[in-house]
Write a structure and sequence with these properties.
This protein is of the alpha/beta class. The protein has 2 domains: 4-94 and 204-421, Adenylosuccinate Synthetase, subunit A, domain 3 (Adenylosuccinate Synthetase, Chain A, domain 3, Alpha-Beta Complex), CATH 3.90.170; 104-201, Adenylosuccinate Synthetase, subunit A, domain 2. 33% of the residues lie in helices and 20% in strands. It has 12 helices and 20 strands. It has helices at residues 16-24, 76-88, 108-121, 133-141, 148-152, 155-176, 184-198, 205-214, 246-253, 286-294, 313-323, 390-403, and strands spanning 4-8, 29-32, 41-45, 48-52, 65-68, 73-74, 97-100, 104-105, 202-203, 219-222, 262-268, 271-273, 307-309, 311-312, 327-331, 341-350, 353-355, 366-373, 406-411, 419-421. The strands form 5 sheets. A 10-stranded mixed β-sheet has the order 9-7-5-2-10-1-11-15-19-20, sandwiched between helices. Strands 14, 16, 17 and 18 form a 4-stranded mixed β-sheet that branches. Strands 3-4 form a two-stranded antiparallel ribbon. Strand 19 (406-411) and strand 20 (419-421) form a beta hairpin. It is globular. The protein starts with a strand and ends in a 5-residue tail after the last strand. The relative contact order is 0.16. Bound molecules: guanosine-5'-diphosphate (GDP), 6-O-phosphoryl inosine monophosphate and magnesium ion (MG). 6-O-phosphoryl inosine monophosphate (IMO) binds at residues 8, 11-13, 38-41, 126-129, 131, 133-134, 224-226, 229, 240-241, 274-275, 300.
Length: 426
């Protein structure tokens, strides 16, 4: 069976959780490969709403195995809270969660650093989720991070490594950021307790994945964040610290490009962004407000309002290229119901130039739009592509033309059944 690589094609929150849930029944193993609990992936099943932060959204399907790869940074408390919450809500995690021993661990000092760095930046802040994600990836690249292997392994070695790390971090916190350091003994004690609870999930994910691939199991790789938040390809420095793009799947769980059968990009029918940074099609007017209210655009992790704007074809076409996206799932089409006119950004005006390719720096680019007539009827009750209003089909077809790929899935509501295939991809 085909492996699907699911990637956010905008600035995150495209509805990845919902589409992962939609596709999970057809796959055996669902894998997260980057990010951490900065992610918030929402799945609505009947009247129940679940927000997953670290555990792949496939966990809501009985019998599916979920894997957290080495590219993910793990806050053990956040992971345990998520396991507890799911268990309390009747989701059986036992033997269904595998956590990479190679994944790096987030410690309290990472969260403090994330916060104090943001404060120090003042008006130039990134607008991070303050979950310690960036500082944890910094330690990984500095070769001083602690991995799940250290956390659940030899206590003496963990003790020594953590002590050394906290000694260094306290100097940084106290001398550079003029804030209180952390108490080594209490962090050690707290984390040893987490280790006891998490040990049973930790394994060598590379072997696990390859052994299962040899048994013809099929995989769904669940991206977090989105292409424009990628530390290399995104709107740097207003990005996250990982690779939510296709390359991140290989380094984030140890599979090779040979595994790729299908790259599915997820894009909203319009655009949103949470946190700071340039956003060319942002609407600071009534239309933007309307999109935010109708679309309930508030962060699933921090609750912050999401900035809203029209669909940016340059941005999504760029994501198509960077990731080799085969087809797109377009979500939240229903939110555009009733708009008299809908705009699509087809080029940018940057100084005296008009460009149609997403540039290195979008800061001073002005969007150039084409206008499509809206459809004046609801779509949220539609369950088949052929029943969509003609003008909605025209909109979808135009998005396909402008982004250069076919649209395989359309979503018209937050629920599982409000999703349908346009072109089969599996
Ligand atoms: P993710 O981070 O990409 O998984 O997306 P989030 O869960 O952060 O945000 C997407 C939001 O849109 C969630 O509240 C979903 O329940 C909701 N959603 C997803 N698809 C649709 C859709 O087609 N229509 C509507 N109205 N809501 C949707
Ligand atoms: P999902 O997986 C939207 C944004 C933050 C901030 C920037 C850096 O739900 O799509 P970080 O805490 O990662 O250092 O913050 O990235 N960000 C997201 N925006 N959806 C997400 O995840 C995000 N994860 C991080 O708002 O602008
Ligand atoms: Mg989200």
């Amino acid at each position: 069976m085909a492996n699907v690589f699911l990637i956010g094609a905008q600035w995150g929150d495209e509805g990845k959780g919902k589409i992962v849930d939609f596709l999970s029944s057809k796959k055996d193993i669902i894998v997260r490969f980057q990010g951490g609990n900065n992610a918030g992936h929402t799945v609505n099943i009947e009247e129940k709403k679940f927000v997953l932060h670290l555990i792949p959204s496939g966990i809501l399907h009985k019998n599916k195995i979920c894997v957290i790869g080495c590219g993910v940074v793990i806050d053990p408390k956040a992971l345990l809270d998520e396991i507890d919450e799911l268990t309390q809500r009747g989701i059986d995690i036992n033997n269904r969660l595998k956590v990479s021993a190679r994944a790096h661990v987030i410690f309290p000092y990472h969260k403090i650093l994330d916060n104090v760095k943001e404060k120090k930046r003042g008006s130039d802040m990134i607008g991070t989720t303050c979950r310690g994600i960036g500082p944890a990836y910094v330690d990984k690249a500095m070769r001083m991070g602690l991995r799940m292997h250290d956390l659940v392994g030899d206590k003496e070695i963990f003790y020594k490594k953590l002590k050394q790390n906290i000694k260094e971090k306290n100097v940084l916190l106290e001398k550079v950021f003029e804030t209180e350091g952390v108490d080594f003994e209490s962090v050690y004690k707290e984390y040893i307790e987490y280790a006891e609870k998490l040990r049973k999930y930790v394994c060598d994910v590379v072997s696990y994945i390859h052994n299962n691939a040899e048994e013809e199991k099929s995989f769904l790789f669940e991206g977090a964040q989105g292409t424009l938040l990628d530390v290399d390809f995104g709107t740097y420095p207003y990005v996250t610290s990982s690779h939510p793009t296709i390359g991140g799947t290989f380094t984030g769980c140890g599979v090779s490009p040979k595994y790729v059968d299908n790259v599915l990009g997820i894009a909203k029918a319009y655009t949103t962004r949470v946190g700071k940074g340039p956003f060319v099609t942002e609407l600071n007017d009534e239309i933007g407000k309307n999109l935010q209210e109708k679309g309930r655009e508030f962060g699933a992790t921090t609750g912050r309002p999401r900035r809203c704007g029209w669909f940016d074809a340059l941005a999504v076409r760029y994501a198509v290229r960077v990731n080799g996206i085969d087809s797109l799932a377009i979500t939240k089409l229903d939110i555009l119901d009733g708009f008299k006119e809908i705009k699509i950004c087809t080029s940018y005006k940057c100084g005296d130039k008009v460009i149609d390719q997403f540039p290195v720096d979008v800061t001073n680019c002005i969007p150039q739009y084409e206008t499509i007539e809206g459809w004046n009827s609801p779509t949220d009750n539609i369950r088949d592509y052929k029943d969509l209003p003609e003008k909605a089909v025209k909109y979808i077809n135009r998005l396909s033309e402008l982004t250069g790929v076919k649209i395989s899935i359309v979503s018209v509501g937050a629920k599982r059944q409000q999703t349908f295939f346009k072109d089969m991809i599996l």
